[in-house]
Amino acid sequence: MPKGPTKRRPETRAKLLAAAGELFARQGVGATSIGEICRQAGYTTGAFYSNFESKDELFFTLFDAHAAEAIETIRQRLEALDVESLTVEELIAPFAHIRPEERDWFLISSEFTLFAIRNSDAARKVAEHDARARAMLTPVVTRLLAAAGVTSPAGVDHFCRYLIALREGGLAQSLVEPENLDHGELERTYLPRLLRGFEK
Predict the structure, then answer these.
(1) Radius of gyration of the chain (CA)
(2) HSE-up of 200 (CA within 13 Å, CB side)?
(3) CA distances for 92 relative to 83, 86, 95, 181, angstroms
(4) What Cα–Cα distance (Å) separates residue 163 from each residue in 118, 133, 160?
(5) Which own/partner contact pairs does 125-134 have at CB distance under 8 Å and 24+ positions apart?
(6) Quick one: pLDDT at residue 84?
(7) pLDDT on residue 199
(8) What is the pLDDT of residue 19?
(9) 97 secondary structure, DSSP code
């Protein structure tokens, strides 16, 4: 039989992750200490280190969980559609949908990305996690492209990079100028035109 601490481990990790996500979004990754995360979650630093080796490991756990959740949301929205009878505009709608929590994650990931650009070890870790996120996205995008009747000229992984770049760049602009640019507006405007321009 598992001992008590073992059975509580998933709950402890979940609370630490939730506390870290809240603090990272509010005050920044660099400005948040492990002690603050523990106090916010109601645990000791010993509980932290029994679950994570470092703040970086906790961040990347958040990264993977967020990517999986976001991609699953897109997959479910696409699965709910009758792709055979939809226009290209309707097919890309799941990719243009921005969830309310995206603002907080954008603040967190942007800060860490800037850090990674200056730090080669962090950059390698970010690249590895980005690759895993694209691997999760690939089946969804493959289905989208097949339904649209087009082929990516440089492969699906390359097209996933483009989708992520467009989504993150558009989100940044709409967060800065919400009165001038709606969330997902760039995707809704330009992705259908891009797909129609691909050689069939």
Answers:
(1) 19
(2) 7
(3) 11, 10, 5, 18
(4) 24, 12, 5
(5) 125/56, 125/60, 129/60, 129/63, 129/64, 129/67, 130/164, 132/64, 132/67, 133/63, 133/64, 133/67, 133/71, 133/164, 134/160, 134/161, 134/164
(6) 66
(7) 54
(8) 95
(9) -
Supply φ then ψ for residue 198, to 5 degrees.
-70, 145
What region does 8 belong to: left with phi over 0, alpha with psi -120 to 50, or beta?
Answer: alpha
Q: Cα torsion for 22, 97, 56, 45, to the nearest 10°?
A: 30
C-alpha to C-alpha distances, 71 to 1, 35, 95, 124, nearest whole angstrom: 36, 32, 9, 22
Could you list the mean pLDDT of each consecutive 10-residue stretch along the chain, which spans 200 residues?
59 94 91 95 95 91 85 79 73 80 87 89 89 88 83 90 91 94 91 76
The residue with tokens 């601490």 is 5
- 12/155 Cα distance (integer angstroms): 41
Residues in the chain: 200
Per DSSP, the residues of 103-157 read HHHHHHHHHHHHHHHH-HHHHHHHHHHHHHHHHHHHHHHHHHHHHHT---TT-HH
Cα of first residue to Cα of last residue in the chain, in angstroms, is: 58
Residue partners of 154: CB distance under 8 A and separation at least 6: none
Q: What is the rounded distance in angstroms from the CA atom of residue 134 to the CA atom of residue 164?
A: 9
